[in-house]
Amino acid sequence: TRCAGALKQPGMYEKLDKLTGRLINGILDAAREAGHEVCGGHISGMFGFFFCKGPVKSFADATASDTAKFARWHRAMLEKGIYLAPSQYEAGFMSCAHTEEDIDATIAAAKEVFATL
Fold it and tell me: Which of 5, 15, 51, 96 has the fewest Cβ atoms nearer than 10 Å?
């Protein structure tokens, strides 16, 4: 596939890691700026977060998070055209096709949504 070919390019994994870090940190920062307790992180192109102070290190920790708030956030992000994993228990994934502009738009939408929750 095209993406598999792109991953063979020098520096592509580093680029994917950088973009994913920028995305999840932007989302987490936007949530905290709006007064929400969140935690999360990423590994390469995979990311996730929870509506709780954290850290989440076990299933018990994850179940203590605010899944109702996540559901409201997810629906509002969909209304803004941002498609993310529909559950806090699922990981999100970046791809080689995502751009800096995509990250900017997603963080901007997240800021708007977090301000309404």
Answer: 5
Peptide bond between residue 86 and the one before it cis (omega within 30 degrees of 0): no
Cβ proximity of 117 and 72 under 8 Å: yes
pTM attached to this predicted model: 0.90
Closest CA to 88 of 47, 55, 57, 53: 47
Residue 34: which residues within 8 A CB-CB, separation 6 or more? 111, 114, 115, 117
pLDDT (average), residues 63-85:
95
pLDDT per position as a tens digit, 78-103? 999 999 999 989 999 998 888 999 99
